[in-house]
Amino acid sequence: MSIPTYSLAERDRRWAIARGIMEAEGVQALIAYGEHECVDLAPFAPDAYFTNDRPGAIVVFCRDADPVELTWSTLPVADHIQASRRGEELWIPPERIRVARHAAGVAEVLREHRLETAAVGVLGLDPYPPFHINPIMPYGLWSQVLAELPEVSFKPVGLSYLLAIMRQSEEELAVVRYSAETGDAMAEAMLEAARPGVSEAEIYAAGMAAAFRRGLAAPGMLLSSGPGFVSWGPPAWSYRPQAPRAVEEGDVVMAEVFCRFGMKETQHQVAIAVGEPHPEIETGAKVARASYEAGLAAARPGTTFGDLVEAMQGPLRDAGAWNVHPLVHTLNPMGPVGGFGAGLRRLPEAARYGRLFDLPTMGGQLPLMPGMTFAFEPNAVIGDRLTNLGGTVVIGEDGPIELNPFTARLLRSEG
What we know:
Blueprint: H1 8-25, E1 29-33, H2 46-51, E2 58-62, E3 68-71, H3 74-85, E4 97-99, H4 103-112, E5 119-123, H5 139-148, E6 153-156, H6 158-165, H7 170-193, H8 200-213, E7 220-226, E8 252-261, E9 264-274, H9 279-298, H10 305-319, E10 328-331, E11 373-376, E12 379-382, E13 385-388, E14 391-395, E15 400-402, E16 411-413
Parallel strand pairs: 1-5, 3-4, 5-6, 9-16
Antiparallel strand pairs: 1-2, 2-3, 7-8, 8-9, 10-11, 11-14, 12-13, 14-15
Helix pairs in contact: 1-6, 4-5, 7-8, 9-10
């Protein structure tokens, strides 16, 4: 099994991106705030993008100097020492790592470079959809930074960062492909496990075990089962004390598998029919497949993201269906996302809830470019039954590159 890794050339390319952002935004420093480690879905980790290290740091670029990494404790330092002893190629030297992930640490770095009155770009002051509709920077931390450096002009530069890193390098695409292959292995293991009498937890475990065997330490999964449903999310037994449901003949098992390897993510929409599913599931699978194919036809350089979403919505409109979650969104990083949820108001129970609104398409003006990665996750509700399928797609020079055709169809267990 060949495992892709990153080279120092990839490090230099990314550091050049940071300096390019600084020049384009007219700032003399760049602060990259990283969300704490062990985050599940869609981590906000520009720190790891620039360090290739354990997530959860603040990284500071000052003028032309190499970056400084501010860690939250001595634990990342111990990991760095151990990696050095193993002979691993590290991006940040020990001299540029400090246990100082706080306002005073940030201020210290900027003062050392005489930037107390400079313009400074910040990653963490912009929204980061879909999970961070509001900026992720902690109020306590940032208010202290402002108090420490009252004459610095801080500027959000998240959009510049997002646009600069969306096109993956060849080294990054190799990592993405490995993650995508792992997603297929997870789906195959789940298909093998899905039988009447088997619990959702056993199917979940089969998928996770396949990922762990391939060296993915941070997979995740949404999962539901039953003869039909309109819900979408993690299994209820993962957050509520209750027994996992046992699969029955005629059920469908539907999951969204998240693979993250080397901080690059792929997503895989797993739909498994256990025996003969309800006819509405079969119809939904055809509609979702038509949406997938419409997306492939539109996923070419020069098309806008909004055009891509519109193309994938067409088969749903024609069928009178609606989508519970996005039909498509960007990956690496997550950002532009297709609208979803409008059909929820069709359900009779919806009238009992307070304010309901659907999420509109965000980032529709983004032009598609080679090297971009997308989660194609067409889903269609027919009647009261959701069908979901799809996988990760790369925008190629001449058209789309399907990394997961295996999950772009309704899978069938013998039951």
